Each structure stands twice: as C-alpha cells, then as structure tokens.
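This entry is passed on directly below:
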Amino acid sequence: MSTRMDIYEILEYLPHRYPFLLIDRVLSCEPGKDIVALKNVTINEPFFGGHFPHHPVMPGVLVIEAMAQTAAILSFKTLGTKPDKNSVYYFVGIDEARFKKPVSAGDQLIFKVTLLRRSRGLWKFSATAEVDGQIAAEAVVMCTIRDL
C-alpha cells in the first residue's frame, strides 16, 4: 500500500524541527520497500545567507541529511511504530556519496529511498535526490534506532 503524508504526519515520525526538518511531504511510501519524499528549497533557508551569499547553494551534507530523514520515516513505517522520547534514530554511515549537480533556491528536491537490508538493528538504504528528473546527489545511508 502506498501512503502519502503531509507535514503534520511527518512531524509525528521525525523529531526534527525548524531549521533542521528537511522533508515537506511524502509522495508515496511502501513500508518494507521504498519511499518518495520532497523538499521545496526556498531562498529563505537559513543556510543560504552563508553558503554562499553571491551564489546560494544547498550544502551537500544537508541533502544527505534529508535522505536520512526520509529513510527514518520509511523505517518507522516499516516497523509500524512512531519514535518516542525514550529512543533516538541515529544516522550511522554513508557510502558511495556523490554530488552530481548543485541544489539552488527554487529547486524542488525529490528523495527516492529504497530499503536494501535490515539486520541486527542496522538499516541500509539506497538513496537519491533529484531535481527536475536529474540526480543531484546519491548515496547509500545506514541508520539505527537506539534506546536512550
């Protein structure tokens, strides 16, 4: 079953808040398989003032972070649960990260994340970030859920 999510439901699945919440909408989610989410990149983003004032570009590390946030939603949807104050979802690894084109104000980022493997509490995903159908970034990301 494919599930769409608005920002209010996303807030139930991610502990992140402004300025670090980097997902605006989930377009589809098939628990145990994959998810597609989006972020509207605006000139009002707090990082654009310093990165770079003469040519605003979204930092690549934030694009990767948004992929991990998308993966977190897929993890919780797969588990059929929501995060709580007694646990935290950690981003634990990045492999094969590549940046293919800069992301600028006015772009709409589409994140496509596929679950590759889940073993002993470690989740591994293949992730891409696209703008206008072209890959802006791609990576394999690993995450885990830990009790506090």
About this structure: Residues 46 and 117 are 34 Å apart (CA to CA). The helical segments are 7-13, 60-79. Residues 60-79 form the longest helix (20 residues).
